[in-house]
Amino acid sequence: xxxxxxxxxxxxxxxxxxxxxxxxxxxxxxxxxxxxxxxxxxxxxxxxxxxxxxxxxxxxxxxxxxxxxxxxxxxxxxxxxxxxxxxxxxxxxxxxxxxxxxxxxxxxxxxxxxxxxxxxxxxxxxxxxxxxxxxxxxxxxxxxxxxxxxxxxxxxxxxxxxxxxxxxxxxxxxxxxxxxxxxxxxxxxxxxxxxxxxxxxxxxxxxxxxxxxxxxxxxxxxxxxxxxxxxxxxxxxxxxxxxxxxxxxxxxxxxxxxxxxxxxxxxxxxxxxxxxxxxxxxxxxxxxxxxxxxxxxxxxxxxxxxxxxxxxxxxxxxxxxxxxxxxxxxxxxxxxxxxxxxxxxxxxxxxxxxxxxxxxxxxxxxxxxxxxxxxxxxxxxxxxxxxxxxxxxxxxxxxxxxxxxxxxxxxxxxxxxxxxxxxxxxxxxxxxxxxxx
Length: 437
Fold this sequence. Notes:
- The chain is of the alpha/beta class.
- The protein is built from 11 helices and 14 strands.
- Helices cover 43% and strands 23% of the residues.
- The protein has a 5-stranded mixed barrel.
- The termini are far apart.
């Protein structure tokens, strides 16, 4: 249906905005779709609905992309700024804004961007030097007396941090060291701002290095190597709250603690005043209870002492009773001892004859046993069984045949006397026996 009036002058067609957007979308769909594009991810974000939004760029252009939840659920990795990817999808026009966008249906890695490659190389080198060592990182003060902030005066992060601190710890002073957080001059300004806080007297107790979110290019100042070394030299704990929760920079790894957002950084160093006031109230209550309990205990002890003490006359009376008791025990002990000493001679006189007779009998039995042993050892008993005791002329005992030779004189002692013998080659000759005395 033509919109021109009869007899009107021919001219360009007048489009409704929505109709033109749809026409352009139809032309794009017919001319290009489906399309595959390769580029570097920038400004990646994932909405609570599950949809993902980002830009795909290269040296000469940039294209807005939307990846809806169904396609995002098929990803086998988490896309990040700086990733080099290949996407497949359909070009479309987002009619409410008239923006050209690529609706991504699939996404896969195609290598990483140059900035991200540089980030990884610098991160690996500084980590090897020990700048990220967890052992050197310090715990945050529980109750800082002052807080230092390094960020841009115009940054939204400054407003968020100040708002959080004013709400939670309005009594703690804050020192701001302004610095650019984006651009070529940002690293140097950030270093100088930190050094100015390091040199403060009195020093702040903790430092917040904060900035809002952005692409990898926007956050590149926080990947500076000089800034990293300056952060490591901080004399007080330093918290990095740069970007959103998914953003990571070299400053995050060097700081004593990384916060997911600037607001979270402020909350980490500022327990709400109400919490501390509540803790003080609880401590006061516990001290009061403890003091009251102690006073009650001491009062009871005082009452017990007063009850035990009573009047001085009562104490004297109790001591007199105890003294009389001890005197009675002493008298009984002396009388019992005297009685035992009196009876001792009578007991000894009565027991003496029996004990003496028993002792004499024991000694007589012992003497008889000794005499029997002596008789059993008498050599004469052995001679009475037919044995002889041989000696030479000098009276030395002969115990072996090798001691004798032919012609030697031998004396043999028998049970009833002695016999003189002479050794011969074939035996011994004897003389008459000599009776034993």
